[in-house]
Amino acid sequence: RFRYExxxxxxxxxxxxxxxxxxxxxxGGAIVExxxxxxxxxxxxxxxxxxxxxxxxxxxxxxxxxxxxxxPFALVSGRLDVAYRKFETKAALVPDFGGVVxxxxxxxxxxxxxxxGRYNRDISYSFESVVPYYLQTDWMFSMTQKITTAWDVVGxxxxxxxxxxxxxxxxxxxxS
Length: 176
Hints:
mainly beta
């Protein structure tokens, strides 16, 4: 259950009207230990979101998520998950999404230098009714150089991109 306070507003949008919903999700998976430092997993998830005051935003989704987890003492540590996600809306004017989503957070340490990379790509609900959801793609890279036992120098860079799906006309809707 996702609920906002009755009068909560953001940019003249009633957040309770836009986002109050009941979500039901089910999933499961399997894990295989490939080495003492590496595991492989496959997760499957299906679910639905039903909006209390905005039924035109109702959607069902499923995804298959294979990935790897690398323990901290591995040469590369962290996790790498790449999935296929299908997001099907109930409204004819709202386009569906089907494609690759991913979560990556990997680190590599060489002596006194640590390199970390992160990448995320998935969909989220928007607060705007004309753009009911968006695809967020972001990445970040950082490098940490140990100078002394108490001092580090860190450099970071990254980018965030939001691709909004707008409500369209029925004859312009693209089916995937």
